[in-house]
Amino acid sequence: MNKIVIYTEGGFYLGLGNIYRMTELGKLLKSKGKDAQITFVTSSEDYVVNLIKNRGFEVKQTAVNEIISLISNLDFNILIIDKLGIEETFIKAIKALKTKTFKVVLFGNISTANQIADLVINAIIGSDFSNKAYIDKYGTKYLTGPKCLTIREEFKHHAYVYRNQCEKILLLFGGTDQTNYSCKVLNDLLKSNIQYNITLVIGKGYKFLEELKGLLSELNNVTVLKDINNVNKVMLANDFLITSPGTALFEALYLGLPCLALYQNESQKEIFRDFLFTKSYEEITNLSDYILEIYKDYKNYLKKIDELEVGKGKNEIINNIIELI
What we know:
Layout: E1 3-8, H1 17-32, E2 37-42, H2 46-54, E3 58-61, H3 67-72, E4 78-82, H4 88-97, E5 103-107, E6 119-122, E7 132-135, E8 141-144, E9 168-172, H5 181-190, E10 197-202, H6 209-216, E11 222-226, H7 231-236, E12 240-243, H8 247-255, E13 259-262, H9 266-272, E14 278-279, H10 287-296, H11 298-308, H12 314-324
Helix pairs in contact: 1-12
């Protein structure tokens, strides 16, 4: 049996994008490599662990300083890591503790750890948003660019239909929304001269419910959804999405839904600087005007996202991982 360990983290500051991406990858590996046994490893909070379990995977949870020891004691052929900033020493420490050889796959990594990995998949970080496949001087194979995003299967065969009338706005700032854009952007839209119908999605890690409740009193044009599992349907029921740079942004691009992404932190600002439809919240003087500027130029919007080929390399990723077994 082919045994795969996936190490990833998520939470209030990290968000849940890595978790969703890796559980989707796990599903694909199970369906393609039919005898694959997949175990997740994390030091994340219980709600993150339960999220992974609810998607059908075994999870090993431990303290962050025990991760290396835990992974080293597991039996596996492939170690997949999706965690920002993995260092070379981390992988070397695991290799030193194991007698059995294994292959290493890194997602979203630009450190020297890449030099001792077998496969690096950088859809965003370190990709310059260019779709490429190459082998570097260390013998590490790279797959890069938005083509390498693992878009969830539920988005397949669906597409947004442009109505030429922007009335329904979706706000979706991830499972934690660390800067509470849910409240900030909602407040801006409520002050607009345009009477939008607004759908707000919050996740398990959202910690600003009391502030949100204060904004929602006596409003009938705002619907709040919590921890949904039909994101594609909710997206397609709206005319425009405001989100953060991450999973939801690229799912919207995949569907063709007009959108705007606001940086949640300096890391996102550095990674996504000058990328299509991403912006600092502070840069926008009139949110409604900016939404309409993007929305009305839909033909150009489609042209730009077609060039990205978002999510079209899914099979290439799975095949390259399976080839390592």
